[in-house]
Amino acid sequence: MAEMEEVLKAMGIRIMERRKKMGLTQEALAEAADLTTQFVSYAESGKRGMRPENLMRIASALGVSTDYLLTGDIIDKDRLLLSEKMARLTAKQVRIVESVIDECIALFWDGR
Q1: Which DSSP helix (H) or strand (E) runs through 80?
Q2: Surface-to-core class of residue 78, CB atoms within 10 Å of its CB (0-12 exposed, 13-18 middle, 19+ buried)
Q3: Residues 6 or more apart whose Cβ sits within 8 Å of residue 103
Q4: Of 12, 15, 38, 90, which is most buried, counting CB atoms within 10 Å of its CB?
Q5: Angle at Cα 74 formed by Cα 87 and Cα 36, nearest 5°?
């Protein structure tokens, strides 16, 4: 049981961090996901699990995969969502993003 509580708490933290990164309030996320604010609050606190359809609604509203919310892993769907965002940029903007990514790789690369 303690393991499940840890999973729910970690998932709640990922939901909250993503929501805040997007500049959303709990109310705005609830509206975007067609859920109640209380539900979002419970999800972020890790107090209870959620049905798959509600997890999917939150993931969609946050623009991430359900896998990311559940495990923290980035999967192909997350990369596809980023690719869709990149498609809205000009060629020059894509090159800027590419250089930022290259800098991050150089900064965080530890030889693994």
Answers
A1: helix 76-86
A2: middle
A3: none
A4: 15
A5: 85
3-state secondary structure of 60: helix
CA-nearest of 49, 76, 77 to 63 is 77
Residue 76 structure tokens: 């192909």
Taking only the tens place, the pLDDT of each residue in 59-108 is: 999 999 999 999 999 999 999 999 999 999 999 999 999 999 999 999 88
SS3 90: coil
For residue 35, give every residue at least 6 positions away whose Cβ sits within 8 Å of its Cβ, in sequence order, or none: 29, 54, 57, 58
pLDDT tens, position by position, 6-42:
999 999 999 999 999 999 999 999 999 999 999 999 9
- Please provide the average confidence, as pLDDT, over all residues in the chain: 93
Closest CA to 44 of 66, 21, 68, 69: 69
